[in-house]
Amino acid sequence: MPRHAHAMHLLGVLCLQSGRFPEAIELISQALASHGPQPAFHSNLAAAYLELGRLIEAAAHCRTALRLQPDHPDAHHNLGVALRGQGQLEAAEAEFREALRLKPNYLDARCNLGAVLHQLG
Prior knowledge:
The chain has helices at residues 2-17, 21-35, 39-51, 55-68, 73-85, 89-102, 107-120. The protein has 121 residues and is mainly alpha-helical. It has one domain: Alpha Horseshoe (Serine Threonine Protein Phosphatase 5, Tetratricopeptide repeat). 42% of the residues are buried. The model has no long low-confidence stretch (mean pLDDT 96).
């Protein structure tokens, strides 16, 4: 069963990368249901929710990923994006900074940090 879950997760990631976000959510959710909590599964599910503008669900999955793996730079970045979208700029700044601490060359996190700092003035 675990290999099946990883295959579903990978199919979900392919859907995410090709812009098929509802399908990505369905596949990754199925992978989580059959395999149990995995940080990468939750982080990728959050990314799909972000693409659909579902910020609350995205933030919840980021937080779950971070409970499982606190040093997950993508989960910190995605949480920052979700928080920024909700107007929580200081919290978003902290998440982008943590993503950069963990992965110094993380271009998306650097760009988003710059945007948040600009918004904060």
